[in-house]
Amino acid sequence: MVSDQLLFVLKLVLLALLYMFFFRVVRAVWAELRPAGQRAPAAPPAPTHSAPRRPRRTPPKSATPQLVVIEPAELFGTVHPLETESSIGRAAGCQITLDDTYSSQIHARVFTRDGTWQVEDLGSTNGTWLNRQKVSGPMVIKPGDRLQIGNTVMEMR
């Protein structure tokens, strides 16, 4: 027979697991539903092209920085213009929305600070990679650099 003390400990463990589960659910819902004033307005959806095309190599100096999808092949050439701060992830509220199962709801952000563009992972499950190096804090991203989120690879232009 199982002792009363063991049953009591098992009940406490189950209760702790339940609380952790509910905390994660509430946190995910909160991130999805936070007031619109706390995030930048969503960018219009980027056009997708059926045939791969080669974007310009050197954009004019006045051009807005952008992330261009390199992989997967079916999204090759999709252009995502960057705002002062752009969030990237699967959530509809992100400025750059990815249809990638290995991307978190709110995965990373690209922002400008002190005249440079930087990328930061926002606690994603699978990590954010810049030029095949894991992003562990804000890192400078320059034209030509490759940003990988899940299976999606984008190039800064």
Quick structural gist:
By secondary structure, this protein is an alpha+beta fold.
Secondary-structure-based class equals alpha+beta
Beta-strand portion reads 25-35%
The low-confidence parts are 36-44, 55-62
Distance between the termini: 68 Å
- CA-based gyration radius: 20 Å
What is the element string, with H for helices and E for strands?
A: HEEEEEEEEEEE
Helix content: 10-25%
Mean pLDDT: 80
Number of strands: 11
Total helical elements: 1
The largest sheet has its strands arranged as 2-1-11-10-7-8
- Largest β-sheet summary: 6 strands, antiparallel
Shape descriptor reads: elongated
Q: What can you see in these coordinates?
A:
With 157 residues, the chain is an alpha+beta fold. The protein has one helix at residues 4-33, and strands at residues 66-71, 79-81, 85-89, 96-97, 108-113, 116-121, 128-130, 133-134, 139-140, 146-149, 152-156. It contains one helix and eleven strands, in the order αβββββββββββ. The longest helix has 30 residues, at 4-33. A hairpin with a 2-residue loop joins strand 10 and strand 11 (152-156). Strands 2-1-11-10-7-8 form a six-stranded antiparallel beta sheet, with no helix packed on it. A five-stranded mixed beta sheet has the order 4-3-5-6-9, with no helix packed on it. The model is unreliable at 36-44 and 55-62 (pLDDT under 50).
Write the layout of secondary structure elements.
Elements: H1 4-33, E1 66-71, E2 79-81, E3 85-89, E4 96-97, E5 108-113, E6 116-121, E7 128-130, E8 133-134, E9 139-140, E10 146-149, E11 152-156
Parallel strand pairs: 3-4
Antiparallel strand pairs: 1-2, 1-11, 3-5, 5-6, 6-9, 7-8, 7-10, 10-11
